[in-house]
From TrEMBL:
Its EC number is 2.7.11.1. InterPro entries: BSK (IPR045845), Kinase-like_dom_sf (IPR011009), Prot_kinase_dom (IPR000719), Ser-Thr/Tyr_kinase_cat_dom (IPR001245), TPR-like_helical_dom_sf (IPR011990), TPR_BSK1_C (IPR058209). The keyword Phosphoprotein does not apply. It comes from Musa acuminata subsp. malaccensis (Wild banana). Residues 21-30 have a biased composition (Low complexity). This is non-specific serine/threonine protein kinase. Keywords: ATP-binding, Cell membrane, Kinase, Lipoprotein, Membrane, Myristate, Nucleotide-binding, Serine/threonine-protein kinase, Transferase. Residues 66-329 form the Protein kinase domain. PROSITE patterns: PROTEIN_KINASE_DOM.
Length: 502
């Protein structure tokens, strides 16, 4: 089954239309969306694109439950996965329940509408996929957790006051932008929808701009936090979004989830100090806190017409911003997250793609299939050496090959080590295989040494460079890893031009 036809999209939508190509063809060239992702600076948001299911499966390691980043993990109705594209760009992939959007055209139209939005305060939508019954959204990945995690489940430090004001302001700016672009409805705004990017800046998840299903509920949180008019008629309005923003303000003030009705009772009783987060230890401006409490109270008014609009939110929160020169990651007490540089723009082979994705299972399959075809190096042995050592040495390698094929990586390491330690016959393939075995056993240093040894034996062998790229990435040496990936790609291209094969 292919992706849903690009004709499902409006004619004037700037989506990158992908042709229906086989998986093999996709493996031999960067997809159009990936090319867009690496154009310009690393921070540039790629053009909205249609992804294939194969690409998203590869990026998420087959939608591995270990990659699920939903607050409910892979038990959520619509699961969000962390993934990494061939370009080395991290992505968040929301996989909808199969019955959520039965009409692919409706899903494509909704996604394309959200995909037109581009703003620094949003975790922007960069693509979608329709394949059979599968419906998926692809967004920028935010590596520094949610507001809920930092507010309610912090381990090292709570969020300081100035940063809380920044969160409120930035999310208000995001809502104002969406409203100005004709997309004022946001579904289930809460602290889990506020994400922190690589700089620690708060962003509003684009996923809330689409409902969880074509006809499903727009709110999944506790009814105590749901706008009263939604409880009456089941419809989300722009004013409903303002009510939900008010609940986020309460979270920022109190550091915990307080039902709006209870908070309003405290506000009416002028018990502002009782509302404030005790973990702030009094390190906040009472004047600023009063302004924030007043704004929250307005947002939480029972009658929708009594609530402020997004312009008023921005106008009220803007003057409260302090420490404007201090980076968000410093205020959050986290290290700045450095995104890996883009991958080379040349077409990658299956081995290159597997290494760029850090897909050890795919690398294993490729090495098994390749066997020893690249070991065309001279191994001159005397008759005496053949008779005395060759049989035992080849038997050790044979046992290693069986273990490697059967994914018994510890046994394979032992057998290949016996072969190598004899030192009579040299095999770059054995070093490459043992390198992968070390990676499978979380021994990145040993894996790197073996990959370097394979290069010494066969200086122009792409596989040796690919294995070094993976080992370096495992050691968090992303720049060196990319250099090796580029070198391997160049060597592979040279081999293909010379007619020596991949």
């Amino acid at each position: 089954m292919g992706c849903c036809n690009s004709s499902l999209l409006p004619e004037n939508h700037p989506v990158e239309k992908r042709s229906h190509q086989s998986l093999q063809q996709q493996q031999r060239r960067p997809s159009l969306s990936l090319q867009a992702a690496v154009e310009g600076s690393g921070r540039e948001v790629p053009a909205f694109a249609q992804f294939s299911l194969a690409e998203l499966k590869a990026a998420t390691n087959g939608f591995n439950p270990q990659n699920a980043v939903s607050e409910s993990g892979d038990k959520a109705p619509n699961v969000v996965y962390k993934g990494r594209l061939q370009s080395r760009r991290w992505i968040a992939v929301k996989k909808f329940a199969r019955t959520a959007w039965p009409d692919p055209k409706q899903f494509a139209e909704e996604a394309s509408g959200v995909g037109k939005l581009r703003h620094r305060r949003l975790a922007n939508l960069i693509g979608y996929c329709c394949d059979g019954e599968e419906r998926l959204l692809v967004a920028e990945y935010m590596p520094n957790d949610t507001l809920a995690k930092h507010l309610f489940h912090w381990e090292k430090q709570t969020i300081e006051w100035a940063m809380r004001l920044r969160v409120a302001f930035y999310i208000a700016e995001a809502l104002e932008y969406c409203s100005s672009e004709g997309r004022p409805l946001y579904h289930d705004l809460n602290a889990y929808r506020v994400l922190f990017d690589e700089d620690g800046d708060p962003r509003l998840s684009c996923f809330g701009l689409m409902k969880n299903s074509r006809d499903g509920k727009s709110y999944s949180t506790n009814l105590a936090y749901t706008p009263p008019e939604y409880l009456r008629n089941g419809r989300v309005t722009p004013e409903s979004v303002i009510f939900s923003f008010g609940t986020v303000l309460l979270d920022l003030l109190s550091g915990k989830r307080i039902p709006p009705s209870h908070a309003l009772d405290m506000i009416r009783g002028k018990n502002i100090l009782g509302l404030m987060d005790s973990h702030l230890e009094g390190n906040f401006s009472m004047e600023e806190a009063t302004t924030l409490v007043d704004l929250a109270s307005q947002c939480l008014q029972y009658e929708p017409r009594d609530r402020p609009n997004t312009k008023m939110l921005v106008a009220t929160l803007g003057p409260l911003q302090t420490k404007s020169e201090e980076p968000s990651y410093v205020m959050l007490g986290i290290e700045k997250h450095e995104e890996a540089p883009p991958a080379p723009q040349q077409p990658l082979s299956p081995m290159g793609e597997a290494c760029s994705r850090m897909d050890l299972t795919a690398i294993h399959q490729i090495l098994v299939m390749a066997h020893y075809r690249d070991d065309e190096v001279t191994n001159e042995l005397s008759f005496q050496e053949w008779t005395q050592q060759m049989r035992d040495m080849l038997e050790a390698r044979k046992r290693g090959d069986f273990a490697f094929r059967d994914k018994d990586f510890k046994t394979a390491i032992e057998c290949y080590s016996q072969f190598i330690d004899v030192g009579t016959m040299f095999s770059p393939t054995v070093y490459a295989r043992r390198s992968l075995c070390h990676l499978m056993c979380d021994q990145a240093d040993a894996a790197l040494r073996d990959a370097m040894q394979a290069q010494c034996l066969y200086p122009d062998w792409p596989t040796a460079f690919y294995m070094q790229a993976v080992a370096l990435a495992k050691l968090n040496m992303q720049g060196d890893s990319l250099d090796m990936l580029q070198e391997a790609t160049a060597l592979e291209e040279k081999r293909q031009k010379s007619g020596r094969g991949p």
